[in-house]
Amino acid sequence: MRPWFYRYNLPVIDKKYDIAIPGYGHVLYKGGTIVTFDGQGNVLSGTLKEKATIRLIEGSYGFITAKGGTVLTFYPSGAVLSAVLEEDTHLRPVGWKHHFTGSDTVGFIKFSKGKTVTFAESGEVLSGTVKEQTILPVESGASTAFSGGSAVYFDSAGNASAEQPKTE
């Protein structure tokens, strides 16, 4: 009689995963549109042919699903600079650690699908449209409620504003 190894004789369980992450690290760009490359041949911007789930920063956890038919841009380092979200997504803004209060959100804010989100090279949000009312810290040290559908901009200290910061 041969030994029976129970761990190898488990019934097959049908598993369905809601996210597909391409292992080869490529996305398809729409034909007939401009794709911009850097000197090493890496893509800096292009219009996606179809939705794509991409890593925000190489070698780090954090993914977004970008909407097909929209422009996706990258920093020269390969980190995502901006994308239009395919689905409502929880992301952390720049400077979230400065204002973390120990709440159950752990610094995440829900951003709206179909809207452009810009990222710092660290993968944290610089600007985006919040999905639902969110109370965020502002430069004065107080907190302000931003209604759902509001565009929000974050400075390096994690303070939110309804106006885009002036570039110097």
Strand order of the largest sheet: 1-2-5-6-9-10-13-14
What structural class do you assign from the helix and strand content? mainly beta
User: What characterizes the major β-sheet?
Assistant: 8 strands, antiparallel
Q: Helix share of residues?
A: under 10%
Can you give the mean pLDDT? Answer: 83
What oligomeric state is this?
single chain
How many β-strand stretches?
Answer: 14
Entry summary:
The chain is an all-beta fold. It contains one helix and 14 strands.
Could you give the topology of this structure?
Blueprint: E1 36-37, E2 43-47, E3 52-55, E4 63-66, E5 71-74, E6 80-84, E7 89-91, H1 96-99, E8 109-111, E9 116-119, E10 125-129, E11 134-137, E12 143-146, E13 151-154, E14 160-161
Antiparallel strand pairs: 1-2, 2-5, 3-4, 5-6, 6-9, 7-8, 9-10, 10-13, 11-12, 13-14
Please, could you describe this protein's structure?
This protein is elongated. It has 168 residues and is mainly beta. The longest helix has 4 residues, at 96-99. It has one helix at 96-99; strands at 36-37, 43-47, 52-55, 63-66, 71-74, 80-84, 89-91, 109-111, 116-119, 125-129, 134-137, 143-146, 151-154, 160-161. The chain has one helix and 14 strands.
Key phrases:
168 residues; mainly beta; eight-stranded antiparallel β-sheet; two-stranded antiparallel sheet; 1 helix; 14 strands; 2% helix
